[in-house]
Amino acid sequence: MSETATFPGESIHGVDPRDHVATALRPLAAGETVDLHGQPIRVRSDIPKGHKIAVRPVAKGGDVLKYGWPIGRATTDIAVGDHVHVHNVETRLEGVEGYAYAPAAIDNTEEVGERAFLGYRRKNGRVGTRNEIWVLCTVGCVANTARRIAEKANARFAGRVDGVFAFPHPFGCSQLGDDLSHTRQLIAGLAAHPNAGGVLILGLGCENNQLKALLDSAPDLDPERLRSFTTQFVEDEYEQGLEAIEALVAIAERDRREPAPISELVVGLKCGGSDGFSGVTANPLVGRIADKVAAAGGTPVLTEIPEVFGAENVLLQRAATREVFDEAVEVIDDFKRYFIDNHQPIYENPSPGNIAGGITTLEEKSLGAVQKGGRAPLVEVLRYGERVGPHGLTLLEAPGNDAVSSTALTAAGATVILFTTGRGTPLGFPAPTLKIASNSALAARKPSWIDFDAGVVLDGQTMDQAADSLLDLVVATASGQETKAERNGEREIAIWKSGVTL
């Protein structure tokens, strides 16, 4: 995929010389003339900011290219200067496709210099970016109990650790098969997370997701930093919980940050509320960070499998081995069959907000989204609920839903999440989540949500300069600087439910 570059004063921006479309950097009025690399183009109809203008003609039925790849099929003849959107382009996606493996020579030469962050080194070798006490629950019946215990503990033990946080959920009972195992895996993954200096897990007693089975599924938990009990078997669950947290705080408050190389970072890569600028600014910028982290020996993790549909080959051609290629194909095809088996089209995306922001088809959204993975080799594929192993770019099975996929990223081991957005969202997750705006208007309008403005690359700052600034922010965040979501108390989890409820 071609490199993006923009310059101040441009009205439209093209990504790849093969493209049929360019992105409007401001609202374009019918009848005006704009310039793309010396080519004058007369605008044939009003085009909103972030939407596409045709810079080459496309015959009806022909592929429309953006980012050098097809984003859909023209439903009518498209002339130079036309507004290109849902009224004249449709998806090409239909079902499961065939893919051919071809070894690729990949050279990731990104550098991070001498940067290091200050983190908490845990007994299992992982390095956390926070030192918090997490209160988890096996089942939704004690979700509010977990929340109230955390609230009381925060008041009682304020200032001794980075905070006490509950992550309630509604599941853990009346679940079968994958749903039950998903719930168990996600809670176990969170319990082993290096950002938790101590963990309290509450059970009810009669639920499907039994506490003992949950603990047995996570043998790498540090017993010194774990407390658990079944609420049906204690007289006062609040006092029992506070006593457990007091013991955990006494252990965790002795922990100290120490220098750690970038190779110890696990960075989750996520986008939500994308717009027409996401694939031009924020996502390729995050891709630079992913490449820098991977080149340093760290672990960037890409997810949202439905937002790979239509852009699979961008990732598959970077598979480090045939085994990784086959695993990636299996995850992608399984997710497509999940849609088909539920009698849903695989292209039921983008969202209304995405469309309003200029994204026309799932292929266009996906081609913008996968840029968060940069250009590094794909070295590992994880199923939902699994945790990262070897260092390098990883693909994680999870849906596109912001809360579900970000929870999966955290449970997989992400210690910082980079979340790009063109529309904005206040959501935060257990791992510190940096919101990166694709456009400066959003950053100016929602300063309490946005941590970094990627729109600067539309105003003359180079991608390299912006990437250096963003990496500095990632390092500062990993070293303890609060994100906007943390400051706002935005911390949620959501678990993927795909089956029946009893």
UniProtKB/TrEMBL annotation:
<dbReference type="InterPro" id="IPR013974">
    <property type="entry name" value="SAF"/>
</dbReference>
<dbReference type="InterPro" id="IPR007392">
    <property type="entry name" value="GD_AH_second"/>
</dbReference>
<dbReference type="InterPro" id="IPR048332">
    <property type="entry name" value="GD_AH_C"/>
</dbReference>
<dbReference type="Pfam" id="PF04295">
    <property type="entry name" value="GD_AH_second"/>
</dbReference>
<dbReference type="Pfam" id="PF08666">
    <property type="entry name" value="SAF"/>
</dbReference>
<dbReference type="GO" id="GO:0016787">
    <property type="term" value="F:hydrolase activity"/>
</dbReference>
<dbReference type="GO" id="GO:0016829">
    <property type="term" value="F:lyase activity"/>
</dbReference>
<dbReference type="InterPro" id="IPR052172">
    <property type="entry name" value="UxaA_altronate/galactarate_dh"/>
</dbReference>
<dbReference type="Pfam" id="PF20629">
    <property type="entry name" value="GD_AH_C"/>
</dbReference>
<comment type="similarity">
    <text>Belongs to the UxaA family.</text>
</comment>
<feature type="domain" description="SAF">
    <location>
        <begin position="19"/>
        <end position="90"/>
    </location>
</feature>
<protein>
    <submittedName>
        <fullName>Altronate hydrolase</fullName>
    </submittedName>
</protein>
<dbReference type="InterPro" id="IPR044144">
    <property type="entry name" value="SAF_UxaA/GarD"/>
</dbReference>
<dbReference type="GO" id="GO:0019698">
    <property type="term" value="P:D-galacturonate catabolic process"/>
</dbReference>
<keyword id="KW-0456">Lyase</keyword>
<keyword id="KW-0378">Hydrolase</keyword>
